Amino acid sequence: MDQQLIEILDLLHRHDITYWLDSGTLLGLMREGKLLKNDMDIDVGVWSEEEQKLKKMLSLIKQAGYTIYSASYKGQIFKYNFIPNYNKHKRKVDINLFREADHHAWCPMYYFIFTSNHEKSEDRGRKFSGAVRKVIRSWWNRFNTKIRLKVDINSFPWRPFLNIGTWWIPIQYFKKIEYDTRLKAYIPSDWESYLEFRYGRWQVKKNDWIFYKDDQGINDKEPAEIIKQLKH
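The structure assignment produced for this chain is given below.
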């Protein structure tokens, strides 16, 4: 298995953090037996109640050569990113903190407002959009990791550049997790059903995949809007 992933999992185990492999990381390992070649993130899910344990291991993450930043939404941290400082071949580690509401696990998610290169548009506009997104992403990463280590996605200067949605996952997929002896990692017990929920025919590679349009685990409404509707 990937050495970087082994190192991250070892820290999670040593700090007794309840976690599960998620998203593209889970998909790649279960479909291909390895991390997806073009997916430059390691995706891990934890419950928000694990945050204090997570904080205790952050000093070791820094010692391992990562810069750490957190993202919050309306005052609540929902994501920790570990970004390799020197090794360009290492992946960014995304740890999403999930909370529970209405029989679902939820966590804010965001993406840049510029359209994807896969969407239909004039060739010139598509190339321009791609170039602008690269500039914004580069600026975003540089600002986050070198200037501000805590980002509130709902506030200026980030909010004008982002669409905010919600990971909205039926609670049963994350309430029951199990240790996979082959992967030496925790995964959702009903991982096949979970991958089918997220990706449809997950066994088949999709070259035209656009995560914020095709992933069935995403609700395009902001968490605050969803929670507000639940209260009425």
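Interim note for the steering committee: The radius of gyration is 18 Å. The chain has one domain: 3-230.
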